[in-house]
Every structure is written in structure tokens, then in C-alpha cells.
Amino acid sequence: MIPEHAYSSTTISTSAERLWTKRNLLIAVAVGVAAFAFYNFVLYNYYYGDPAHYQRYYDSLIGRDLIWALRSQSDYLGSSEIIYPMVAWIGSNALIERYVFMAAIDGAMYAVIYNTLRIHRCHPVFIALFLTNFYLIVLATSAERLKFSYIFLFLALMTAGRIRLIWIALAPLAHFQSLITLGSVFVWHFFSQLSARMKVVIGAGTAVGAVGLLYFFSTALLGKFASYQGQGGLIDILSGLALCGAALAIFHNRTKVFVTFAPLIALTFILGSDRMNMVTFTTFIYLCLVENKTKHPVVLAIMIYLSYKSFGFIDNVLKYGNGFI
Hints:
Blueprint: H1 4-44, H2 50-60, H3 66-77, H4 83-93, H5 98-119, H6 124-131, H7 134-141, H8 144-158, H9 161-174, H10 178-191, H11 196-216, H12 218-230, H13 234-250, H14 254-271, H15 273-290, H16 297-320
């Protein structure tokens, strides 16, 4: 027979877990409400740059049908995903101001992210730094289409089984850029399933490919590098390399890290740092979450820097109506 105290211990543990979950949900709601209030103010003052394009598209949807919204987004936004037009069409035809509507979605995003981080048992300091992170603030303010993709990705981290697969499938429909992130995650998990010999082969192949890229395209890459330097984007290029270096220092399997991050660094030169640095950072943070490295000093140092960087971005929005000055 199972001792009575064992039943009692199990009951107490289950009750404590339920209480912990309910408390986290309540805090997540509070975080979402606070984020809504904050971004309602910030977005009201953010009217140049990307938000100006989104505003024109949003206003054009009033009185239009959904098919027109899907077809016209390429003219206004140069995109062809389906999630954002559907959401924008609903908000626009409900006659909700765009900044209010997007602030509400930002609030939902923050609530989802907070709950996800608590599920992964992240320390409150890391959570606070994450919620004030530069890239998250960019998502909440100027990267309107991409934010929906990240909401789906964080919902995937909260769930399991078929529900997780549904969220993962929805992410590329919100923004195709998420395919790169999902590819990096796939490489990280798939690589661990390979034999030691195959790992060496893939690692060596990636290294040879990187050397070949440098050899055959050195002139073009140096030109690209120089152009970024001339535009003040050299630091942005180096930040991706810095994240790769940090990952090499944090994680023990350096071959696995190299195979995961090397394609991202290569794509940075092709697609540009503005687009790829967020992908590289997302991959880095995902690995820290699943490998329980969020308390590592290097990780916290990176998060502190990115939180500090966000203050300048918000200050630019309030002063000039644009975060990127």
C-alpha cells in the first residue's frame, strides 16, 4: 500500500503548482495591461518611418473587403503574408485607431511572453530585462507584421503536441522571416540526433563552406562590409558575430553552435543586419531558454546592454516621432 503521507504530499504539490500557475497568469495579465498603456502612449507619438507605411495601409482598408486587403498589401508594405492584412482589416473596419489596436496586441504579446518565460522558470531579473529588451520594443513599435510571428513562436513555447505545431505553422504566415529562425532551431535539435562521425562531417562541411565563401566572394563581402562601415552599420554586423562568440563561450558543444550560427552570420551579409540581427538574437535566446542558460553572466550582460539600448530608441520616438534616427 502507498503511505497516506505520500497522497498528502502529492496533493500539496499539485495544489502549489496550480496556485503558481494562476498567480503567473494574473501577473501576465497585469503585465499585458501595463504594456498596453505604455505602448498606447508610445505608438501615438510614433508617426514616421515604418509606422507611417502601416498607417496608410490601415487607413486604406476602411470600407474595403478582405480580398482587397490581401491583394493591396504588396503595394503599401511590399509583403505577401496573410496574417497581418486579416488583423489590420478587422481593426480598420471596426474603426479602431491603429495605435490603440496595435497597443492592445502589444499587451497580449507581453502577457504571452511573460507567461512563457515563467513556464521556463526564468529568474525575475532575466524577465525584466527581456521585457525591456531593444528587439522586443522594436517588435512592439515598428515591426508590426513580424510581431505576430513572434506571438505565435512564443505560444509554441508555451504549448506542446499538435497545438505547438499549429502555432509553429502560423508563424511563417505572419512573416516569412520566421522560417530562418525555425530553421536554426531545427538545426540545433536535429544536430544532436546525429552520430559523432556525421557531426564532424557537417561541422567540417560548414567550415569549408565558410572558407569557400570568403575565398570566392571576398571582394563582394569586403565591399559589403565597407558599405556597412560607411553607413554606420558596422557595429550591427559585429553584434551578430558577438552573439555567436557568446554562444561558443556559453555552450559546451561548440561544433553544434558553429553549425547553428554560421548560416545566420552568412545571411547577415546577404540580407542585412537590420533583418538578421533579430533572428540571430532570437536563436541565441531560444537556446539559452531550452538549455537553461538564462542566468549565465554573459547572457545577463547582453540583456542589460540591450535594455539600455532601448531607452535611446524610446527617447527618439518621443522626441522625433521615429525610433531609428
